[in-house]
C-alpha cells in the first residue's frame, strides 16, 4: 500500500530553492538538453538537404521525355543552353493570352536559339481541353503538331468560348477540329481515328502525369532550364521582358 508522506517529511524533502539555484542544473538536465540540441541540428540538416533537393533543377527525362513536341530547337553555339518547357491547357483563357502576348513572340524571337517544349496539362474545369489536346496529338501523328497547336490558339474564340463563358459542346468542338485538320491538309478520316485512339490519349496522360509529378497546379506553368519560372509584370509586355531577361542571361552564360 502506498503511504502518503507526512507534511513535515514532504517539506523536508523539497529542495531549497536558494541552494538549488546555486548548484545549477543537474547533470541529467544538461545531458537531455544536449540530446535535444543535437536532434534539432540533425533534423534541421535533413530539412535543409531536402529543401535544397527540391529547389534544384528537375530531371530532363520528366520535363522533356522522348517524343515531346518542340516549337524551336537550339542550334549551333546556343544548342543546349536554354530549354523552356510550357505545360498548357488549350481551352485555358490565361494560356491563350500568354500565347498571344508572350509565347508566340518568344517562339519567333528565339527560333533556333532555345529549345521550346510544349506539354499537355488539361484542367478538369475546361471540358474541351482534353479533346483539343487529342486534336494536337492526332495532327502530330501526321507530322502537323505545330500547325495544329497554332491553329487551336488562333481560332480559340471560335471553339473554346461562347463569348460569354467557356464552351462545353464536345461534339461541335470535335467537328471544328476536323475542319482544322482538313485546312491543314491532313487525312481527316485518319485524324478522326487517331483522336479517339488509346495511343493519343496515352500521350496526353503521360504529359499530365509528369505535370502532376512536378506539382503543376495551374496553366500555363513554365520551367526554364529545369526550374519553375514565374515571370514578373502586370502587362504582357512586362511579362515578355521578364522572359527575355532570363533567357538572354542564360544564353550569355
UniProtKB/TrEMBL annotation:
It comes from the Bacteria. Residues 40-252 form the Thioredoxin domain. One of its GO terms (molecular function) is oxidoreductase activity. Keywords: Disulfide bond, Membrane, Oxidoreductase, Redox-active center, Signal, Transmembrane, Transmembrane helix. The keyword Signal applies. The chain crosses the membrane at residues 29-49. Pfam families: Thioredoxin_4. Residues 1-20 are annotated as: Disordered. InterPro entries: Thioredoxin-like_fold, Thioredoxin-like_sf, Thioredoxin_domain. PANTHER family: DISULFIDE BOND FORMATION PROTEIN D, GLUTATHIONE S-TRANSFERASE KAPPA. Belongs to the thioredoxin family. DsbA subfamily. This is Thioredoxin domain-containing protein.
